[in-house]
Every structure is written in C-alpha cells, then in structure tokens.
Design brief:
Blueprint: E1 22-26, E2 39-43, H1 44-53, H2 56-62, H3 66-71, H4 73-82
Antiparallel strand pairs: 1-2
Protein name: HNH endonuclease
Keywords: Endonuclease, Hydrolase, Nuclease
GO molecular function, one term: endonuclease activity
C-alpha cells in the first residue's frame, strides 16, 4: 500500500502535506450563488489572502477561476512571496487588508 501524494494548492502550486492547515475555497462565493458549486483545496494562508484581497462580489464577478486569481496583481505578488516559504508556513496576512 502506498501513500497518495499530497494534494497541490492550485494558487501557490506547493504541496499541502497532511496536518498543514488547509481549507476549501468556493470559486463562486456561496452568498453569490456558489453553494454546491466547484471548490478547490488551498493552503489556509492562501485562502485567507484571497479573502483579504477581494470582496465576495469581485470573486463572483471577475475572479471565479484559479487563473483569474493567480493573475490578480496582489495575489501574484503573494504567490511569489509564499512560494519561497515551507509548505507548513503560517503567517498573518501580509500587507493591508482591502478596503470595504
């Protein structure tokens, strides 16, 4: 019996080993019609950064794919930054939160 490989976080493209904080991200927010819709497994730090950067409306309207999320300027900088960290790295969200 072999162990399955660790899933890969689609935002930062790093493995998500067992025991590392992780969470499911609804590509279309539940409050904007995404309940029961597609989800992706992310590092918890990556998921927090998405929600610190974008509103639910922005996510539903323009950022409902991984490609769109990775293309967002702040998230692209975050991905470059977090890619240099260990897969179990946890931190407060860098930079200022988005304005509400």
């Amino acid at each position: 019996m072999t162990d399955a490989p660790a899933p890969i976080c689609p935002l930062c493209l790093r493995p998500i080993p067992p025991g590392v904080p992780q969470s499911l991200h609804h590509l279309v927010p539940k409050l904007k019609g995404g309940k029961g819709g597609p989800t992706v497994l992310l590092h918890h730090i990556c998921h927090r950064e998405i929600h610190a950067t974008l509103t639910e409306a922005e996510l539903a309207r323009n950022y409902h794919t991984i490609a769109a999320l990775r293309a967002h300027p702040r998230l692209a900088r975050f991905v470059d930054w977090v890619a240099k960290r260990p897969t179990d790295f946890q931190s407060k969200i860098p930079g200022k939160r988005r304005k509400r």
